[in-house]
Specification:
This protein is of the alpha+beta class. It folds into two domains: about 5-140, Fructose-1,6-Bisphosphatase, subunit A, domain 1 (Fructose-1,6-Bisphosphatase, Chain A, domain 1), CATH 3.30.540.10; about 145-250, D-Maltodextrin-Binding Protein, domain 2 (3-Layer(aba) Sandwich), CATH 3.40.190.80. About 30% of the residues lie in helices and about 25% in strands. The protein contains six helices and 16 strands. The strands form four sheets. The protein has a seven-stranded mixed sheet with strand order 3-4-5-6-7-8-9, sandwiched between helices. A five-stranded mixed sheet has the order 11-10-12-16-14, sandwiched between helices. Helix 4 runs parallel beside helix 5 (about 200-215).
Length: about 250
């Protein structure tokens, strides 16, 4: 089985599990260190993905938001990078915009990725060098356009003047709670860009980074540098992903 087919099948299985907990008052805990909530659905999905994926590819490393990290993955040639449920707060609140985000990286580069939104039945998928799709339809990020006509997915705190060389560009800001979903929507051309300007966990953005680039967009950290994955500390310096406005956003950042 191709890596991408493996990820697609695993994501659909994860969706079947998560939907049983959605709007069913799952048990919720707060993680230590202010890292936000986790539900019994996150943990169940994580167990299932670990079983499905690591059984199929036992030589691949494992990095997941809901699994204690270790050094073992650093000595592997390829790694799974997994967020069992991205957008857990949305999941708890009954909002449908949560996703399963699953990627495979090799030498710091994502080679296969899926973002699956079970409540929308939307399967975003990509393999390195082979384009990106949603439910089989090819994706294309937006081309050049004026920044004052662009719509960018971003949390409100990112608009603070401290992040910008002078002030934030005059794009229209909107929001989705799941970082993975934001990236998928940029790849789909529904929005012109997305940005997050805080240290960003790899499992939130690894799959989306490949899907955007395979849709013709550009992905970088907030300094304009390429994002690299499977780092010893699995965070990157924010993320800016966009079609034609990418360089405009980078140039405007402090």
């Amino acid at each position: 089985m191709r890596d991408l087919d493996l990820l697609i099948n695993a994501a659909r299985d994860a969706g079947d599990i998560a939907k049983k907990y959605f709007n069913a008052s799952p048990e919720v805990w707060e993680k230590s260190g202010g890292q936000g909530p986790v539900t019994e659905a996150d943990l169940h999905v994580n167990r299932q993905l670990s079983a499905d994926l690591q059984t199929a590819r036992p030589d691949y490393g494992w990095l997941s938001e809901e699994t204690e990290d270790g050094e073992k993955r650093l000595s592997t040639e390829r790694q799974f990078i997994v967020d069992p449920i991205d957008g857990t707060r949305a999941f708890i609140e009954g909002n449908k915009d949560w996703a399963h985000s699953i990627a495979i990286s090799e030498n710091g580069i994502v080679t296969a990725a899926v973002i699956y939104l079970p409540m929308h039945d939307a399967m975003y998928a990509a393999t390195l060098g082979q384009g990106a799709t949603c439910n089989g339809t090819p994706l294309l990020a937006t081309a050049d356009k004026a920044i004052d006509t662009a719509t960018v997915l971003s949390a409100k705190p990112n608009m603070d003047s401290k992040y910008w060389a002078t002030k934030a560009p005059p794009f229209k800001r909107t929001f989705r709670s799941s970082l993975a979903y934001r990236l998928a929507l940029v790849a789909q051309g529904q929005f012109d860009g997305m940005l997050t300007l805080r240290p960003t966990w790899e499992w939130d953005v690894a799959a989306g980074a490949l899907i955007v680039t395979e849709a013709g967009g550009i992905v970088s950290d907030q300094k304009g540098q390429p994002a690299s994955f499977n780092n010893p500390h699995p965070q990157i310096n924010g993320m800016v992903a966009a079609g034609g406005i990418h360089q405009t956003l980078i140039d405007a950042l402090a």
